[in-house]
Design a protein that fits this description.
By secondary structure, the protein is mainly β. The protein has two domains: about 1-125, TolB, C-terminal domain (Neuraminidase), CATH 2.120.10; about 125-205, no CATH class. Helix content is about 5%, strand content about 50%. The chain has one helix and 18 strands. It has one helix at about 50-55; strands spanning about 1-5, 5-10, 15, 20, 25-30, 35-40, 60-65, 75-80, 85-90, 95-100, 105-110, 120-125, 125-135, 140-145, 160-165, 170-180, 185-190, 195. The strands form six sheets. A four-stranded antiparallel sheet has the order 5-6-7-8, with no helix packed on it. A four-stranded antiparallel sheet has the order 9-10-11-12, with no helix packed on it. One of its GO terms (cellular component) is vacuole.
Length: about 200
């Protein structure tokens, strides 16, 4: 759906792709040059309210999709994906980063160049990712809804990971921690400040 800058009634742009209705539309990003929209449908089997079943049953029916701003059509770029979540168009617009909540990874799908159409691992992540956003420095912030368990740990840590910054090559260069019990769904950097969002809280930070 699309809503104008002044609000009002939303306009429905599409309801499905490849003959399959949208079921669990999740992450989204827009190419600021073309207006094309890239987004994920996390599962064609389980709706949002059954998101834990996606992980428990190792569901791999997620899709990466593109809404073409000119043709007004949605195409399936990649299907058969395990829990695709957040997406971010790269700075040079040659690929899209896709966060997979399970198996705790970030991949990239190439849009242009000799690797166009290729899907490859960008980074193994230390937790279960939600959204991914450009950091303004050539890399990406990935929000972590939950940190992975630490092998050998005998006591619960006072703080835990809620986000990581990756450089353009997928190397972790910074960690963001918070008190135990705090979870994030979004980390966005603007003018040197981090804006934080959570699906479990009623405010932003």
């Amino acid at each position: 759906m699309r809503v104008g800058p002044d609000g009002g009634e939303a306009e429905v742009l599409a309801t499905g792709a490849g003959g399959v209705p949208f079921n669990f539309v999740n992450g989204i990003d827009i190419d600021q040059v073309t207006g094309d929209v890239y987004f994920t449908d996390s599962s064609v089997t389980y709706p949002r309210r059954f998101n834990t079943e996606i992980m428990m049953n190792a569901d791999a029916t997620g899709r990466l999709l593109k809404y073409d701003a000119v043709t007004k059509q949605v195409t399936v770029l990649k299907d058969g994906l395990p829990y695709p979540n957040g997406v971010a168009v790269s700075y040079d617009r040659t690929y899209v980063v896709v966060a997979h909540t399970v198996p705790c990874q970030a991949h990239r799908y190439y849009l242009q160049g000799p690797k166009a159409g290729h899907y490859e691992l960008l980074a193994d992540l230390p937790g279960y990712p939600d959204n991914v956003r450009r950091d303004g420095k050539g890399g990406y912030w990935v929000a972590l809804n939950q940190e992975k368990g630490r092998p050998g740990a005998t006591t619960a840590p006072v703080k835990h990971l809620v986000g990581v910054r990756l450089d353009g090559g997928g190397v972790e260069v910074e960690e963001l921690t918070a008190a135990k019990g705090v979870t994030l769904s979004e980390v966005t950097e603007r003018k040197g400040q981090l804006w934080l969002g959570s699906v479990e809280l009623d405010y932003i930070g």
